[in-house]
């Protein structure tokens, strides 16, 4: 059993700044593992808890400093870390990113069973990279996964969130699985795991080591770009209602009726 967990390095701040070309300025900004990807890693570790011979490969595409998040993944229980890193990949949108990752997987990890990704990235929130990855690899995908129910060497059973609630899905490998957050907090690493991570080198793959058409990478291979970026504005105001349950209910009803009259 071989699982690839895709991890993205994101800025640990809401004050994201961009260059004139639409790329993120990461210098001087603390970085963390994308929170949704933390859950992706946890799903892989749960499968390994049940099937100990499972091999987990943490994969990331980004600058050299992304090695740190791969070390954290290894400290938590991943077996290997691979970093796709080259200035030629800079400026990649979701299409170019997924194309690069797919080419890497085809060349270096073709015998995978399962790819797990976070459904969203907090620095972009497009939810496009993982589905695009599945398309490039020609395999099926399951999105908005909320719970791991069971797994074995041939299939996985999960709960998927929908607008109507949750549905149970059984999927055979190979697949790409996109996960969302749930009430179970991802595990932390142990001191033993932390020490172990320093004895496992991160494999770094540059453009020369990945067979891919240069027309599909970086700025040149990106059909989309960031035209404008700004933090969301919150102008909603709250009001605390006090009194007995009956008084609060009556006051709330009065406020609702007033808002209707105002057309709000």
Question: How does the SSE layout of this entry go?
Answer:
Elements: E1 2-6, E2 9-11, E3 31-33, H1 35-50, E4 55-61, H2 67-76, E5 80-84, H3 94-108, E6 114-118, H4 129-137, E7 140-151, E8 155-162, E9 165-172, E10 175-179, H5 191-197, E11 203-205, H6 245-262
Helix pairs in contact: 2-5, 3-4
Task: Describe what you observe in this structure.
Helix 3 crosses helix 4. The strands form two sheets. Strands 9-8-7-10-6-1-4-5-11 form a nine-stranded mixed β-sheet, with helices on both faces. Strands 2-3 form a two-stranded antiparallel sheet. Helix content is 28%, strand content 24%. With 264 residues, it is α/β, with parallel strands linked by helices. It starts with a strand and ends with a helix. The model has no long low-confidence stretch (mean pLDDT 88). Strand 8 and strand 9 form a beta hairpin.
Q: Give me the number of helical elements.
A: 6
What's the Cα radius of gyration?
22 Å
Shape: globular
Overall strand count = 11
Q: Which percent range describes the beta-strand content?
A: 15-25%
Structural class category = alpha/beta
Summed over residues and divided by their number, the pLDDT gives a mean of: 88
Q: Quote the distance from N terminus to C terminus.
A: 55 Å
Query: What strand line-up does the widest sheet have?
Result: 9-8-7-10-6-1-4-5-11
Question: Could you estimate the helical fraction of the residues in percent?
Answer: 25-40%
Stretches where pLDDT falls below 50 for ≥5 residues?
Answer: none
Give the SSE string: EEEHEHEHEHEEEEHEH
Instruction: Specify the biggest β-sheet.
Output: 9 strands, mixed
